[in-house]
Amino acid sequence: MMHEHIEALRQRFLHSGDDADLPIVDAHHHFWDLERNYHPWLRDVPRIPFRYGDYEAICHDFLPDDYFARAGNHRIVKTVMMEGEWDPRDPTGEARWATALHQRTGLPSAMAAQIWLDRDDVTDVLAAYRDLPLVRSVRHKPATVPRAAHRRDFSAPGSMRSEGWRRGYALLEASGLMFELQAPWWHFEEAAELARDFPRTRIVVNHTGLPADRSDEALAAWRRALDALARHPNVWLKISGIGEQGAAWSVARNGPVVRDAIACFGTARCLFASNFPVDSLVVTLDDLFTGFKTIVAGCTREERLALFYDNACALYRI
């Protein structure tokens, strides 16, 4: 019945073009229960340095009821939960917890799970995920450096060019899992090498490549990096996580970023996501999806449906 309801909503949007009818898959968000589970960055003090600054406001439970209390009137019908840096001593624990949450509440609809590609347990972790069908992809944030310190031959331990990391990455094809890449855009030459060398493994770029520096020079370089990575057809782009420390999220500031990202990857390989509750530090969930809708209002109905719903459903098989 749920599938029939969503398909009716989808067809109604295609007929009406009314954003009130637009079904949404939130392709990147978190759930966590800090009373029961250990996420070191959310539980331990002192807090770690963070790109949005002080994040004390998100260091509390965030579960499906908390999510929908913030969603306004948006038709969010499915979600993809991203790993939330759960205790690395138990890399599969979060996926098991999310599976139980899905069984109780129906959410998340799919998830990206924790992995450590250069650890000895990588084969065992991938084997465990075969028994957890909610898991569609995995994330291991590779080693990165600030832009000023980056060199084109960067290959530090734990980076996308390091031998152990690539050895683990090579196992993803046989597992059938995608890879979620969270790295700043100046590391995208390394990501392009992965896409080239492992063409049957899909890469899903998180947070639009993290264009935090909004200077003209930095944005031009970010666009060039996106363009180069987009040449590889096995790479997709999540438009999310584009807030700025100390600045309220706005269509005026983020509209050009979103439109440039879509120009690079096309409406067939981009998908919108909230990064909640993390991005609640810079925007409400209601205003975020309203802003995304405003930014792409000039797209066709089919393109808008792809960005908000169809692409995520296809990519995450939900």
From TrEMBL:
The protein's superkingdom reads Bacteria
Q: What is the lineage of its organism?
A: Bacteria, Pseudomonadati, Pseudomonadota, Betaproteobacteria, Burkholderiales
Q: Where is the Amidohydrolase-related domain?
A: 25-318
According to the UniProt entry, its GO molecular function terms are: hydrolase activity
The record's section on SUPFAM superfamilies has:
Metallo-dependent hydrolases (SSF51556)
Q: Which family does it belong to?
A: Belongs to the metallo-dependent hydrolases superfamily.
Q: Which InterPro entries match?
A: Amidohydro-rel, Metal_Hydrolase, Metallo-dep_Lactonases
Q: Would you tell me the protein name for this molecule?
A: Amidohydrolase-related domain-containing protein
Pfam families tied to this protein: Amidohydro_2
* Source organism: Paraburkholderia largidicola
